[in-house]
């Protein structure tokens, strides 16, 4: 993908189409090749962009405006339909370019497996990286029905790569017993059901460290975000998720990259999920890109 020309499609609101000047780069990872239930998240990035036009540019939560942040929308990474391995390689190549140029990667999924090559590449460039993971699901499987490239495996992959003690999961309410046992045995922290309060306890311990944040939209209760591939009741409210984003913003933690995944617009005719995702991204950009 070239960065010397403007993306010729929809862009996230207030994107500056000058790559060289940008602090952060937004990009889509339109892949849902490995989902185990409902496909459709490959259409998430474009719809999030399209509905962003309805956003206010000012955040009353953070007292910042999108004019205060310089970010470039590179569009969607062209991924070969059905080829998970090659798609992950292309994502890794894309992120390597961003790392070389000193940009903060801001990803939109796509299924959660797309976060794996991003986190791995960021970890290769930032010593002592920590991962903050918000999700309904553990995503700690080694494989799903014999397939190691699955949207149920990215957190296990990054935990094994950088060490389980460097991965912090929040809002988890679904997973195999073996996944929870593995996390406990290996020192990985999992906060069940809640996000905000356990997150506040962890943030002071991450001061001074580079942090990558990955958020699966299904951490929200389906009442707040029905447009996702694997809905799971009992989740947090959009208000709590916003407060969690702001807690990170106000903590002084050094966020070096982040993503929001698993938005599947086809399952939400009201577009509540896409609009929520768009606002969440606005707050993440304003709060985490300094």
TrEMBL record:
InterPro entries: Agmatinase-rel (IPR005925), Ureohydrolase (IPR006035), Ureohydrolase_dom_sf (IPR023696), Ureohydrolase_Mn_BS (IPR020855). Keywords: Hydrolase, Manganese, Metal-binding, Polyamine biosynthesis, Putrescine biosynthesis, Spermidine biosynthesis. Its EC number is 3.5.3.11. SUPFAM superfamilies: Arginase/deacetylase. GO terms for biological process: putrescine biosynthetic process from arginine, via agmatine; spermidine biosynthetic process. Signal peptide: none annotated. It is an enzyme of class 3 (hydrolase). GO terms for molecular function: agmatinase activity; metal ion binding. Mn(2+) binds at residues 112, 135, 137, 139, 216, 218. It catalyses: agmatine + H2O = urea + putrescine. Pfam families: Arginase (PF00491). Pathway: Amine and polyamine biosynthesis; putrescine biosynthesis via agmatine pathway; putrescine from agmatine: step 1/1. Its cofactor is Mn(2+). Binds 2 manganese ions per subunit. CDD domains: Agmatinase-like_2. Belongs to the arginase family. Agmatinase subfamily. Catalyzes the formation of putrescine from agmatine. PANTHER family: ARGINASE/AGMATINASE (PTHR11358), GUANIDINO ACID HYDROLASE, MITOCHONDRIAL (PTHR11358:SF26). This is Agmatinase. It comes from Psychrobacillus glaciei. The lineage of its organism: Bacteria, Bacillati, Bacillota, Bacilli, Bacillales.
């Amino acid at each position: 993908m070239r960065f010397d020309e403007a993306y010729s499609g929809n862009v996230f609101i207030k994107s500056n189409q000058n790559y060289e000047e940008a602090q952060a780069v937004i990009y889509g990872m339109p892949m849902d090749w490995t989902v185990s239930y409902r496909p459709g998240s490959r259409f998430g990035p474009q719809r999030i962009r399209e509905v962003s036009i309805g956003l206010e540019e000012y955040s009353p939560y953070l007292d910042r405006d999108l004019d205060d942040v310089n970010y470039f929308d590179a569009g969607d990474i062209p991924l070969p339909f059905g080829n998970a391995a090659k798609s992950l390689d292309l994502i890794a190549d894309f992120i390597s370019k961003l790392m070389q140029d000193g940009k903060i990667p801001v990803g939109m999924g796509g299924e959660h497996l797309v976060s794996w090559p991003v986190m791995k590449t960021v970890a290769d460039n930032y010593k002592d990286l920590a991962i903050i993971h918000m999700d309904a699901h553990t995503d700690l499987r080694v494989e799903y029905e014999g397939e190691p490239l699955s949207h149920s495996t990215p957190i296990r992959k990054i935990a094994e790569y950088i060490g389980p003690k460097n991965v912090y999961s929040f809002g988890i309410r679904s997973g195999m017993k073996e996944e929870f046992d593995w996390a406990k045995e290996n020192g990985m922290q999992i906060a069940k059901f809640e996000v905000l309060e356990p997150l506040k306890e962890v943030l002071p311990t991450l001061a001074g460290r580079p942090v990558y944040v990955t958020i699966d939209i299904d951490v929200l209760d389906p009442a707040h975000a029905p447009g996702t591939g694997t809905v799971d009741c009992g989740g947090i409210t959009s208000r709590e998720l916003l407060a969690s984003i702001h807690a990170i913003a106000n903590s002084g933690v050094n966020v070096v990259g982040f993503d929001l995944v698993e938005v599947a617009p086809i399952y939400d005719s009201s577009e509540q999920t896409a609009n929520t995702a768009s606002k969440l991204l606005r707050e993440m950009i304003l709060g985490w890109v300094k």
